[in-house]
Protein backbone atom coordinates (compact mmCIF):
# COMPACT_ATOMS: atom_id res chain seq x y z
CA UNK A 1 0.00 0.00 0.00
CA UNK A 2 1.30 3.46 -0.94
CA UNK A 3 2.47 5.70 1.90
CA UNK A 4 -0.29 8.32 1.52
CA UNK A 5 -2.97 5.63 1.24
CA UNK A 6 -1.62 4.05 4.42
CA UNK A 7 -1.75 7.42 6.20
CA UNK A 8 -5.32 7.92 5.00
CA UNK A 9 -6.42 4.53 6.36
CA UNK A 10 -4.65 5.26 9.64
CA UNK A 11 -6.57 8.54 9.91
CA UNK A 12 -9.81 6.64 9.32
CA UNK A 13 -8.93 4.08 12.04
CA UNK A 14 -7.99 6.85 14.45
CA UNK A 15 -11.27 8.70 13.86
CA UNK A 16 -13.23 5.54 14.61
CA UNK A 17 -11.23 4.96 17.81
CA UNK A 18 -11.65 8.51 19.13
CA UNK A 19 -15.26 8.74 17.87
CA UNK A 20 -14.67 11.74 15.60
CA UNK A 21 -15.62 9.89 12.38
CA UNK A 22 -18.48 11.52 10.41
CA UNK A 23 -18.42 9.88 6.97
CA UNK A 24 -16.24 8.65 4.11
CA UNK A 25 -16.79 8.79 0.36
CA UNK A 26 -14.92 6.82 -2.31
CA UNK A 27 -15.26 7.90 -5.96
CA UNK A 28 -13.55 7.77 -9.37
CA UNK A 29 -14.06 4.02 -9.63
CA UNK A 30 -11.68 2.10 -11.88
CA UNK A 31 -12.43 -1.46 -10.84
CA UNK A 32 -13.94 -4.36 -12.73
CA UNK A 33 -17.49 -4.28 -11.34
CA UNK A 34 -19.90 -2.92 -13.99
CA UNK A 35 -21.88 0.27 -13.28
CA UNK A 36 -20.45 0.94 -9.79
CA UNK A 37 -19.93 4.67 -9.37
CA UNK A 38 -19.45 5.61 -5.74
CA UNK A 39 -19.31 4.30 -2.18
CA UNK A 40 -20.48 6.21 0.90
CA UNK A 41 -19.61 5.04 4.41
CA UNK A 42 -21.22 6.40 7.58
CA UNK A 43 -21.48 5.31 11.22
CA UNK A 44 -24.58 3.49 12.41
CA UNK A 45 -25.81 2.37 15.82
CA UNK A 46 -27.56 -1.02 15.67
CA UNK A 47 -28.70 -3.61 18.16
CA UNK A 48 -25.34 -5.31 17.55
CA UNK A 49 -23.47 -2.13 18.49
CA UNK A 50 -21.59 0.47 16.43
CA UNK A 51 -21.18 -0.48 12.77
CA UNK A 52 -20.11 1.04 9.46
CA UNK A 53 -22.86 1.43 6.87
CA UNK A 54 -21.65 0.95 3.27
CA UNK A 55 -23.91 2.36 0.54
CA UNK A 56 -22.75 1.34 -2.95
CA UNK A 57 -24.15 3.62 -5.68
CA UNK A 58 -24.68 2.05 -9.11
CA UNK A 59 -26.16 3.55 -12.29
CA UNK A 60 -29.73 2.50 -11.49
CA UNK A 61 -29.65 1.05 -7.98
CA UNK A 62 -28.08 1.19 -4.54
CA UNK A 63 -26.73 -1.67 -2.43
CA UNK A 64 -26.54 -1.28 1.35
CA UNK A 65 -24.46 -3.39 3.77
CA UNK A 66 -23.00 -2.91 7.22
CA UNK A 67 -19.82 -4.21 8.85
CA UNK A 68 -18.02 -3.97 12.15
CA UNK A 69 -15.13 -1.49 12.26
CA UNK A 70 -12.34 -4.00 11.68
CA UNK A 71 -13.98 -5.64 8.69
CA UNK A 72 -15.02 -2.28 7.27
CA UNK A 73 -11.48 -0.87 7.42
CA UNK A 74 -10.16 -4.01 5.74
CA UNK A 75 -12.65 -3.61 2.86
CA UNK A 76 -11.79 0.08 2.44
CA UNK A 77 -8.06 -0.78 2.28
CA UNK A 78 -8.69 -3.27 -0.50
CA UNK A 79 -10.89 -0.87 -2.46
CA UNK A 80 -8.27 1.90 -2.31
CA UNK A 81 -5.59 -0.53 -3.48
CA UNK A 82 -7.51 -1.81 -6.49
CA UNK A 83 -10.65 0.12 -7.38
CA UNK A 84 -11.24 3.71 -6.26
CA UNK A 85 -8.92 6.57 -7.13
CA UNK A 86 -10.40 9.23 -4.87
CA UNK A 87 -11.39 9.23 -1.19
CA UNK A 88 -12.64 11.93 1.16
CA UNK A 89 -12.66 11.42 4.94
CA UNK A 90 -14.76 13.72 7.13
CA UNK A 91 -14.16 13.89 10.89
CA UNK A 92 -14.96 16.49 13.54
CA UNK A 93 -11.23 17.13 14.03
CA UNK A 94 -10.33 17.55 10.33
CA UNK A 95 -10.87 16.38 6.76
CA UNK A 96 -8.52 14.34 4.57
CA UNK A 97 -8.67 13.93 0.80
CA UNK A 98 -6.74 11.19 -0.99
CA UNK A 99 -6.10 11.09 -4.74
CA UNK A 100 -4.52 7.89 -6.08
CA UNK A 101 -2.62 8.12 -9.38
CA UNK A 102 -0.99 5.41 -11.51
CA UNK A 103 2.49 6.12 -10.10
CA UNK A 104 1.92 8.11 -6.93
CA UNK A 105 -0.76 9.50 -4.62
CA UNK A 106 -1.54 12.81 -2.96
CA UNK A 107 -2.99 13.42 0.51
CA UNK A 108 -4.45 16.80 1.52
CA UNK A 109 -5.68 17.60 5.01
CA UNK A 110 -7.78 20.54 6.14
CA UNK A 111 -10.19 22.01 8.66
CA UNK A 112 -13.31 19.97 9.49
CA UNK A 113 -16.41 20.43 7.35
CA UNK A 114 -18.51 19.03 10.21
CA UNK A 115 -17.99 20.45 13.71
CA UNK A 116 -20.48 17.98 15.24
CA UNK A 117 -21.23 14.36 14.47
CA UNK A 118 -24.65 13.64 12.89
CA UNK A 119 -27.01 11.41 14.86
CA UNK A 120 -26.45 7.70 14.26
CA UNK A 121 -29.55 6.37 16.03
CA UNK A 122 -33.15 7.30 16.59
CA UNK A 123 -33.91 10.02 19.09
CA UNK A 124 -36.50 8.47 21.38
CA UNK A 125 -37.92 11.85 22.34
CA UNK A 126 -39.06 13.08 18.97
CA UNK A 127 -40.40 16.51 18.11
CA UNK A 128 -42.20 15.09 15.08
CA UNK A 129 -43.80 11.73 14.39
CA UNK A 130 -41.00 11.02 11.91
CA UNK A 131 -37.42 11.56 13.04
CA UNK A 132 -35.43 13.38 10.30
CA UNK A 133 -32.26 11.76 11.68
CA UNK A 134 -33.64 8.26 11.04
CA UNK A 135 -31.11 6.14 9.18
CA UNK A 136 -33.53 4.92 6.52
CA UNK A 137 -34.29 8.50 5.44
CA UNK A 138 -30.57 9.11 4.88
CA UNK A 139 -30.14 5.82 3.03
CA UNK A 140 -33.10 6.62 0.76
CA UNK A 141 -31.76 10.10 0.05
CA UNK A 142 -34.56 12.08 1.75
CA UNK A 143 -32.25 13.68 4.30
CA UNK A 144 -28.59 14.64 4.52
CA UNK A 145 -26.07 13.19 6.96
CA UNK A 146 -27.02 16.04 9.31
CA UNK A 147 -30.70 15.07 9.22
CA UNK A 148 -31.68 18.02 7.02
CA UNK A 149 -34.43 17.51 4.43
CA UNK A 150 -33.01 17.68 0.90
CA UNK A 151 -34.64 20.41 -1.18
CA UNK A 152 -35.98 18.11 -3.95
CA UNK A 153 -37.66 15.91 -1.33
CA UNK A 154 -39.57 18.48 0.71
CA UNK A 155 -42.88 17.26 -0.77
CA UNK A 156 -41.99 13.64 -0.03
CA UNK A 157 -41.09 14.61 3.55
CA UNK A 158 -44.49 16.26 4.03
CA UNK A 159 -46.19 13.22 2.53
CA UNK A 160 -44.36 10.84 4.87
CA UNK A 161 -45.30 12.85 7.95
CA UNK A 162 -48.92 13.23 6.85
CA UNK A 163 -49.21 9.52 6.17
CA UNK A 164 -47.88 8.54 9.60
CA UNK A 165 -50.21 11.08 11.23
CA UNK A 166 -53.23 9.64 9.38
CA UNK A 167 -52.29 6.02 10.08
CA UNK A 168 -51.68 6.69 13.77
CA UNK A 169 -55.04 8.44 14.04
CA UNK A 170 -56.87 5.56 12.35
CA UNK A 171 -55.35 3.07 14.78
CA UNK A 172 -56.40 5.28 17.72
CA UNK A 173 -60.00 5.22 16.46
CA UNK A 174 -60.07 1.48 15.79
CA UNK A 175 -60.17 -1.70 17.84
CA UNK A 176 -56.36 -1.80 17.52
CA UNK A 177 -55.95 1.06 19.98
CA UNK A 178 -55.11 -1.12 22.99
CA UNK A 179 -53.08 -3.70 21.08
CA UNK A 180 -49.40 -4.21 21.90
CA UNK A 181 -48.64 -5.89 18.57
CA UNK A 182 -49.52 -5.20 14.94
CA UNK A 183 -49.36 -7.12 11.67
CA UNK A 184 -49.12 -4.77 8.68
CA UNK A 185 -48.89 -5.38 4.92
CA UNK A 186 -48.03 -2.62 2.43
CA UNK A 187 -49.14 -3.65 -1.06
CA UNK A 188 -47.13 -1.91 -3.77
CA UNK A 189 -44.56 -0.50 -1.35
CA UNK A 190 -42.19 0.80 -4.06
CA UNK A 191 -38.99 2.25 -2.62
CA UNK A 192 -40.44 1.93 0.88
CA UNK A 193 -40.49 5.55 2.09
CA UNK A 194 -43.87 5.19 3.78
CA UNK A 195 -43.30 1.55 4.75
CA UNK A 196 -40.17 2.38 6.73
CA UNK A 197 -41.84 5.39 8.33
CA UNK A 198 -44.89 3.38 9.44
CA UNK A 199 -42.74 0.58 10.87
CA UNK A 200 -40.47 3.04 12.67
CA UNK A 201 -43.44 4.92 14.14
CA UNK A 202 -45.30 1.89 15.49
CA UNK A 203 -42.20 -0.07 16.51
CA UNK A 204 -39.89 2.60 17.92
CA UNK A 205 -42.08 5.60 18.74
CA UNK A 206 -45.02 3.65 20.14
CA UNK A 207 -43.03 0.62 21.29
CA UNK A 208 -45.27 -2.03 19.72
CA UNK A 209 -44.28 -5.48 18.50
CA UNK A 210 -44.64 -4.99 14.73
CA UNK A 211 -44.45 -7.52 11.93
CA UNK A 212 -44.61 -5.67 8.63
CA UNK A 213 -44.23 -6.78 5.02
CA UNK A 214 -43.77 -4.58 1.97
CA UNK A 215 -44.75 -6.09 -1.38
CA UNK A 216 -43.70 -4.84 -4.81
CA UNK A 217 -43.19 -6.24 -8.30
CA UNK A 218 -39.70 -4.72 -8.71
CA UNK A 219 -37.10 -7.14 -7.26
CA UNK A 220 -34.25 -4.59 -7.27
CA UNK A 221 -36.26 -2.28 -5.00
CA UNK A 222 -37.12 -5.11 -2.64
CA UNK A 223 -33.44 -6.08 -2.41
CA UNK A 224 -32.46 -2.50 -1.55
CA UNK A 225 -35.25 -2.14 1.03
CA UNK A 226 -34.28 -5.43 2.72
CA UNK A 227 -30.66 -4.26 2.93
CA UNK A 228 -31.71 -0.97 4.52
CA UNK A 229 -34.10 -2.72 6.94
CA UNK A 230 -31.34 -5.11 8.02
CA UNK A 231 -28.83 -2.31 8.41
CA UNK A 232 -31.30 -0.26 10.46
CA UNK A 233 -31.98 -3.20 12.79
CA UNK A 234 -35.67 -3.32 11.76
CA UNK A 235 -36.01 -7.01 12.56
CA UNK A 236 -39.79 -7.09 12.11
CA UNK A 237 -39.75 -5.53 8.64
CA UNK A 238 -39.26 -7.45 5.42
CA UNK A 239 -39.84 -6.83 1.73
CA UNK A 240 -40.92 -9.47 -0.79
CA UNK A 241 -41.11 -9.50 -4.55
CA UNK A 242 -44.63 -10.12 -5.83
CA UNK A 243 -47.85 -8.65 -7.23
CA UNK A 244 -50.88 -7.47 -5.32
CA UNK A 245 -53.09 -9.99 -7.12
CA UNK A 246 -50.86 -12.98 -6.28
CA UNK A 247 -49.60 -12.13 -2.79
CA UNK A 248 -51.16 -14.14 0.06
CA UNK A 249 -51.92 -11.65 2.83
CA UNK A 250 -52.69 -14.06 5.70
CA UNK A 251 -53.56 -12.57 9.08
CA UNK A 252 -53.26 -8.79 8.97
CA UNK A 253 -54.37 -5.90 11.18
CA UNK A 254 -53.54 -3.04 8.79
CA UNK A 255 -53.48 -3.24 5.00
CA UNK A 256 -51.97 -0.37 2.99
CA UNK A 257 -52.16 0.14 -0.79
CA UNK A 258 -50.88 3.47 -2.03
CA UNK A 259 -50.92 4.39 -5.74
CA UNK A 260 -51.78 0.88 -6.94
CA UNK A 261 -52.76 1.35 -10.58
CA UNK A 262 -56.39 1.01 -11.69
CA UNK A 263 -58.00 -2.27 -10.49
CA UNK A 264 -54.90 -3.25 -8.46
CA UNK A 265 -56.42 -0.98 -5.80
CA UNK A 266 -59.56 -3.13 -5.89
CA UNK A 267 -57.46 -6.29 -5.54
CA UNK A 268 -55.78 -4.82 -2.45
CA UNK A 269 -59.06 -3.64 -0.90
CA UNK A 270 -60.58 -7.08 -1.46
CA UNK A 271 -57.65 -8.79 0.23
CA UNK A 272 -57.97 -6.45 3.20
CA UNK A 273 -61.70 -7.12 3.49
CA UNK A 274 -61.22 -10.89 3.10
CA UNK A 275 -58.55 -10.88 5.82
CA UNK A 276 -60.85 -8.80 8.08
CA UNK A 277 -58.15 -6.17 8.54
CA UNK A 278 -59.16 -3.61 11.17
CA UNK A 279 -57.67 -0.72 9.17
CA UNK A 280 -57.45 -0.42 5.36
CA UNK A 281 -55.76 2.57 3.72
CA UNK A 282 -55.64 3.12 -0.04
CA UNK A 283 -54.58 6.01 -2.27
CA UNK A 284 -55.98 4.98 -5.67
CA UNK A 285 -54.36 5.72 -9.02
CA UNK A 286 -55.51 5.52 -12.66
CA UNK A 287 -59.29 5.01 -12.69
CA UNK A 288 -59.38 3.36 -16.10
CA UNK A 289 -61.97 0.62 -15.54
CA UNK A 290 -64.91 2.96 -14.88
CA UNK A 291 -63.62 5.63 -17.27
CA UNK A 292 -63.97 3.21 -20.20
CA UNK A 293 -67.54 2.26 -19.29
CA UNK A 294 -69.16 5.60 -18.43
CA UNK A 295 -71.99 6.82 -20.62
CA UNK A 296 -73.06 10.20 -19.21
CA UNK A 297 -76.78 10.60 -18.41
CA UNK A 298 -78.60 13.07 -20.64
CA UNK A 299 -78.61 15.84 -18.06
CA UNK A 300 -74.79 15.69 -17.80
CA UNK A 301 -73.97 14.95 -21.44
CA UNK A 302 -72.71 18.43 -22.37
CA UNK A 303 -70.77 18.76 -19.12
CA UNK A 304 -69.02 15.40 -19.39
CA UNK A 305 -68.26 15.69 -23.11
CA UNK A 306 -64.95 17.27 -22.04
CA UNK A 307 -62.23 14.69 -21.37
CA UNK A 308 -60.96 16.42 -18.23
CA UNK A 309 -64.41 16.58 -16.70
CA UNK A 310 -65.14 12.94 -17.55
CA UNK A 311 -61.81 11.90 -16.04
CA UNK A 312 -62.63 13.63 -12.75
CA UNK A 313 -66.14 12.17 -12.73
CA UNK A 314 -64.75 8.67 -13.26
CA UNK A 315 -62.37 9.17 -10.34
CA UNK A 316 -65.18 10.38 -8.08
CA UNK A 317 -67.53 7.55 -9.03
CA UNK A 318 -64.86 4.86 -8.73
CA UNK A 319 -63.68 5.88 -5.26
CA UNK A 320 -67.26 6.54 -4.16
CA UNK A 321 -68.30 3.02 -5.17
CA UNK A 322 -65.25 1.57 -3.41
CA UNK A 323 -66.19 3.45 -0.25
CA UNK A 324 -69.78 2.14 -0.35
CA UNK A 325 -68.59 -1.41 -1.02
CA UNK A 326 -66.33 -1.20 2.04
CA UNK A 327 -69.29 0.05 4.10
CA UNK A 328 -71.37 -2.81 2.73
CA UNK A 329 -68.83 -5.16 4.32
CA UNK A 330 -68.91 -3.49 7.72
CA UNK A 331 -66.32 -0.72 7.48
CA UNK A 332 -66.64 2.95 8.36
CA UNK A 333 -65.00 4.96 5.59
CA UNK A 334 -63.69 8.40 4.81
CA UNK A 335 -62.47 9.69 1.45
CA UNK A 336 -60.32 12.80 1.67
CA UNK A 337 -57.39 14.70 0.18
CA UNK A 338 -54.19 12.97 1.29
CA UNK A 339 -51.77 15.77 0.37
CA UNK A 340 -52.40 19.09 -1.43
CA UNK A 341 -52.94 18.69 -5.17
CA UNK A 342 -49.88 20.82 -6.01
CA UNK A 343 -47.69 18.03 -4.58
CA UNK A 344 -49.37 15.18 -6.50
CA UNK A 345 -52.47 15.05 -8.73
CA UNK A 346 -53.36 11.57 -7.41
CA UNK A 347 -54.08 12.69 -3.89
CA UNK A 348 -57.33 11.04 -2.74
CA UNK A 349 -57.16 8.58 0.12
CA UNK A 350 -59.73 5.99 1.18
CA UNK A 351 -59.44 5.20 4.89
CA UNK A 352 -61.56 2.41 6.34
CA UNK A 353 -61.85 1.05 9.88
CA UNK A 354 -63.68 -2.18 10.62
CA UNK A 355 -66.83 -1.68 12.67
CA UNK A 356 -67.20 -4.75 14.86
CA UNK A 357 -70.36 -3.66 16.70
CA UNK A 358 -72.61 -2.00 14.09
CA UNK A 359 -74.29 -3.95 11.30
CA UNK A 360 -74.13 -2.31 7.85
CA UNK A 361 -77.25 -1.06 6.08
CA UNK A 362 -76.78 -3.60 3.32
CA UNK A 363 -80.07 -3.15 1.47
CA UNK A 364 -79.84 0.65 1.32
CA UNK A 365 -76.18 0.59 0.29
CA UNK A 366 -76.75 -2.02 -2.41
CA UNK A 367 -79.68 -0.04 -3.86
CA UNK A 368 -77.50 3.08 -4.03
CA UNK A 369 -74.62 1.19 -5.66
CA UNK A 370 -76.99 -0.26 -8.26
CA UNK A 371 -78.54 3.17 -8.89
CA UNK A 372 -75.15 4.81 -9.50
CA UNK A 373 -74.09 2.06 -11.88
CA UNK A 374 -77.38 2.29 -13.77
CA UNK A 375 -77.21 6.10 -14.04
CA UNK A 376 -73.78 5.96 -15.73
CA UNK A 377 -74.35 2.65 -17.59
CA UNK A 378 -71.55 0.96 -15.63
CA UNK A 379 -71.64 -2.76 -16.28
CA UNK A 380 -69.14 -3.96 -13.70
CA UNK A 381 -66.70 -2.86 -11.03
CA UNK A 382 -63.71 -4.96 -10.01
CA UNK A 383 -64.11 -4.82 -6.22
CA UNK A 384 -67.82 -5.64 -6.43
CA UNK A 385 -67.05 -8.62 -8.67
CA UNK A 386 -64.41 -9.91 -6.25
CA UNK A 387 -66.72 -9.56 -3.26
CA UNK A 388 -69.45 -11.41 -5.11
Structure report:
The chain has two domains: 3-110, no CATH class; 135-387, Rossmann fold (3-Layer(aba) Sandwich). β2 (36-46) and β3 (49-58) form a beta hairpin. α1 (3-17) runs antiparallel to α2. The strands form two sheets. It has a seven-stranded antiparallel β-sheet with strand order 4-3-2-1-5-6-7. The protein has a seven-stranded mixed β-sheet with strand order 10-9-8-11-12-14-13, with helices on both faces. The radius of gyration is 25 Å and the shape is elongated. With 388 residues, it is an alpha/beta fold. Mean pLDDT is 89; it is low at 122-126 and 341-345. The chain starts with a helix and ends with a helix. The longest helix is centred in the C-terminal third of the chain and has 22 residues, at 307-328. 36% of the residues lie in helices and 27% in strands. The chain is built from eleven helices and 14 strands.
Summarize the structure.
This protein is α/β, with parallel strands linked by helices and 388 residues long.
Quickly list its features.
388 residues, elongated, Rossmann fold, seven-stranded antiparallel sheet, 11 helices, 27% strand, 2 domains, seven-stranded mixed sheet, alpha/beta
- Quote the average pLDDT: 89
SSE succession? HEEEEHEEEHHEHEHEEHEHHEEHH
Percent helix range: 25-40%
**Biggest sheet, strands in spatial order?**
4-3-2-1-5-6-7
Question: Any idea what the radius of gyration is?
Answer: 25 Å
Quaternary form: single chain
CATH superfamily heading of the largest domain: Vaccinia Virus protein VP39
The tally of strands reads: 14
From the helix content, strand content and strand pairing, which structural class follows? Answer: alpha/beta
Tally the helices.
Answer: 11
What's the number of domains?
Answer: 2
Low-pLDDT residue spans: 122-126, 341-345
Amino acid sequence: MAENTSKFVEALSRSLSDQTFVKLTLSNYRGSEPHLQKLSVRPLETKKGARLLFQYRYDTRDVVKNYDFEEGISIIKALLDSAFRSAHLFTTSGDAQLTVGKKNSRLITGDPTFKEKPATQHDRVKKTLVDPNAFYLKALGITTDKGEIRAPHQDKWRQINKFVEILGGLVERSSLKERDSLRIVDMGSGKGYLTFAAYDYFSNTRGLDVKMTGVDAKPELMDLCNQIAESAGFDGLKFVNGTIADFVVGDVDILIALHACDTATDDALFKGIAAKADVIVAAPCCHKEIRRQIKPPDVLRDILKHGTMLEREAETITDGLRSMLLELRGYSTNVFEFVPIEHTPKNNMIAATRNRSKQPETERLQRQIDAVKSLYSIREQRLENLLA
